[in-house]
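seq as requested:
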Amino acid sequence: MDAPPRAADGLKAKREIAIMDASSLSLVSAGCAAGAAVAGLATYVRMRSASLASEPGDVSAALWRRAVSPVAVHLRPTNVDELHGLETQLLMAGRRSREAIDQFCEERVAAVLGGISLALVAGAVVGGLTGFALAMGSLVLGLLGPRKLLAIRGAERREAVASALPGAIDLLTTCIDAGLSLEHALTRVARELTASAPILAGELGTTARELEAGVSLADGLRRLSRRVGLDDLSALCGVLAQAHGLGAPIGNTLREFAASSRRARTGMLEERAGKLAAQLTLPLAACLMPAAMLIILGPAALQLVRALH
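struct tokens:
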């Protein structure tokens, strides 16, 4: 009489175990799917971050550039001379990408909009003559700021190249005397100056790569002179191109040029030192005059006050 209930209990237990195994399997499958989804999402986020990091600008920069690009198109120079001049200024400032002109026009639009916004804020918050002056200053800064920053960046690069050029000429002369060709000498000098003068090293490396790509020496040196815009470097490029065209020994030409360049730089530094004394006259007078007047007139002023009392 007890056998059928025991058999029924056994079947029920087997069913519960099967149901538990099925639910456990479902949970494990769901957990694996969730883990795979999280891993895929993490991989996507990592790849997206890497791709954004490899791009020159972030997403916000791309958004504002996309917003002002319809207006910036109309600021692009249409005249050939103006376009050539702007391209030269960008090259001197170290901006050589194909989109450099378009990016500069977009920056000009953003600067103008920022100047207008600051002008409105200054006129509304400050008001009066001070607010008007701040508004006009903001407008002028927005209009002329990008051009001025571009000129300052170019001047900084020229100054850096000018300070490193004498040592680069000596090193180039040594490489030429060692038997290297001018192309290989430029590559070696660029590699040696990477740590001490990265701007000049980058320019010389670019010229060396252009020469290796098949550009003639005269054209490569002309491009180098245009990218930097330094008179001494332009003279060096002209001397090298002329010596190479005439078949003259480049080592002797470089020595003579280095000596003349040092004499010219020494004269320029002496001229600056001579002008320094005249330039310091007004600051010294402005700083020392109050103290001198206090020392001279102070005792007399005290005696006058005592006599009046």
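Residues 3-54 form the longest helix (52 residues).
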